[in-house]
Design goal:
The structure is a single chain. About 15% of the residues lie in helices and about 40% in strands. It is of the alpha+beta class. It is elongated. It folds into two domains: about 5-90 and about 230-250, Probable inorganic polyphosphate/atp-NAD kinase, domain 1 (Rossmann fold, 3-Layer(aba) Sandwich); about 95-225, Tumour Suppressor Smad4.
Length: about 250
C-alpha cells in the first residue's frame, strides 16, 4: 500500500509545495499517514503544535536556514525515504504562567520555556525545584529550561549542555547571569517540577515564552515535562536526531 502524504509549507516554501504536490498526491491532513513539513526549524515547531492531536509522524524538509530538525530537501524518492526513515519520539514541556493581572496561561513547548527581562532592568528570579528553593535570587537577563530536542537551539546559544534525545534530563540554563556569577545552570531529571518566581515584578517585568507562545508580565511560571503528550518526528536513515545531536558536540 502506498504511503499517503499531506504536505504543509511555510510561506517561503510555496513553490516547493506546488512542485511536490504535482509529483505526489496530497491525501489531506485527515487521510494522510505522514505529514511532510516544508520550511525551517521554526516551521517544524509550528507543525508539531498544529498536528498535536492528529497522532501522525512528521517529516520535515529544510527550506529555512539552520534546519537542525529537518531533512535535506529533495523531490526524488520521497516515498522510499519516508518508508526507511528513523523515528524520534519527543515530549513537550507544559508551562503554566500566572500574569500580574491574575490570568493563568498554559502552553506546550517542544524546544524550551524561556523567561526574559522586558526592560533595561535585569530580572530577579527565584528558582524552586520540586518545591525546594535552589536559587533564592538569580539576577540575569533570563533563564530557560530545555528539552533534549531543544538543547541544540536557544539553550546551546546560551552555553547550555547538549542532551542526547533519549536522555531523561532537562537543561536549566541562565541567560547572561550576573549573580550568582559562577552559576552556569543545572541538569534536571525529566520528572522535576520547576517553579520560577519573579521578584520585584513591578520594577523588573519578565515575559515567559513556550516555543512561540509568549505571556508578558508574569508573576510565576511552573514547568514540567508532559509525558502524556508525544509526537513522532521522522529522519532520513543514517541521519537520525540522535546522530545529529551527537555530531553537534564534535563540530568547531
Amino acid at each position: 500500500m502506498t504511503m499517503k502524504i499531506h504536505f504543509t509549507a511555510a510561506r517561503n516554501a510555496e513553490d516547493a509545495l506546488k512542485s511536490l504536490r504535482a509529483r505526489y498526491p496530497d491525501a489531506g491532513a485527515g487521510g494522510a499517514d505522514v505529514i511532510v513539513a516544508l520550511g525551517g526549524d521554526g516551521f517544524m515547531l509550528s507543525t508539531l503544535h498544529e498536528f498535536l492531536d492528529a497522532g501522525k509522524p512528521i517529516y520535515g524538509m529544510n527550506l529555512g536556514s539552520v534546519g537542525f530538525l529537518m531533512n535535506g530537501y529533495s523531490e526524488d524518492g520521497l516515498i522510499e525515504r519516508l518508508e526507511a526513515a528513523e523515528r524520534a519520539v519527543v515530549h513537550p514541556l507544559r508551562m503554566t504562567a500566572v500574569a500580574r493581572d491574575g490570568r493563568a496561561c498554559e502552553a506546550l513547548a517542544f524546544n524550551e520555556v524561556s523567561l526574559l527581562r522586558e526592560t533595561r532592568q535585569t530580572a530577579k528570579i527565584r528558582i524552586l525545584i520540586d518545591g525546594k528553593v535552589r536559587i533564592s535570587e538569580l539576577i540575569c537577563d533570563g533563564v530557560l529550561i530545555s528539552t533534549p530536542a531543544g538543547s541544540t537551539a536557544y539553550n546551546l546559544s546560551a552555553h547550555g549542555p547538549i542532551l542526547p534525545i533519549d536522555a531523561a534530563l532537562l537543561a536549566l540554563t541562565p541567560i547572561s547571569a550576573f549573580r550568582p556569577r559562577r552559576w552556569h545552570g543545572a541538569l534536571l531529571s525529566h520528572r522535576a517540577r520547576t517553579r520560577f518566581e519573579i521578584l520585584e515584578p513591578d520594577k523588573r517585568p519578565v515575559s515567559a515564552v513556550a516555543d512561540d507562545r509568549e505571556v508578558r508580565n508574569v508573576l510565576s511560571v511552573d514547568v514540567a515535562e508532559d509525558r502524556s503528550v508525544s509526537m513522532t518526528m521522522l529522519f532520513d536513515k543514517g541521519h537520525s536526531l540522535d546522530e545529529r545531536i551527537l555530531a553537534e558536540q564534535f563540530t568547531d
